[in-house]
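INTERNAL AUDIT FORM
Audit reference: QA-55
Scope: verify that the stored structure record matches its stored sequence.
Auditor: D.O.
Record contents follow.
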Amino acid sequence: MEEKVPVFEPSSCLDFRDGEGLYAKKSINYWLSFSMLYFFLLLFFPMIGNAAGLPSFHANYELRVNGMVLGETIFELSKEGGNRLIFTHSTRPTGILAGIDRGRKDRSILILHEDSLRPVEFQGFNTLRGKPREGSLHFNWSAGTVEGIWNNQPWRADLKETFHDPLSYQLAIMLDLAKGKKNLHYLIAEDARIKSYHFRITGNESRKTIAGAFDTVRVERVQDSDKRHTILWCAPTLSYLPVQVEQQDAKTNYLMVLRKVEGL
């Protein structure tokens, strides 16, 4: 029998309000681009040895676009008795956008299964694109199915062992990095479809952040197009917590920099 999982109410999430003025509109366009970086940042959060050693933590990042600070992202991992974990994400604007856009929120509930993690429930609410975008997933591992609703549209698929939700797969990546894997591939259930993400380790580098200087492992996403490049720098001394995430396209540089971490 599957455990009952607390429901995450979308009404408690953040909303969106349009701004006026040329500068505000340009800033909003930059801010919307952070939603692309969102999934890449989610990939890299701390693991200690194995899933059973996951610590509770709170990590805060500064968000920049072309050198301009536009917001912050916070990730939190907590334990809820037994083998259940709760992983949450929130992104909110700062500065000029603070009174215009209120960001996004997501929540994943997972269970420890042997030496790995399995997602059980996911719910998210995103207002960054001008109108609410809502999604939920339920993973039934005994029946081998995942079901969800994205923008009021039902969706269902057969489960595979590598399936994750938009938050939980970053924890699976941490397990694989701890095991010494160099090429990482995951299937993500999102937006009523299955997405494939492939990453590889490309070296070791030192990085300076607001939180300090770190020796890191450089991880890049393998993409079909060369129009956008995404790089993550993960610090082994922080259990592979990402201390910096960068995405570069033809015109814009997006950067997430670790500002503060608690619990590690």
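Auditor finding: record pair retrieved intact. The longest strand covers residues 193-209.
Action required: none
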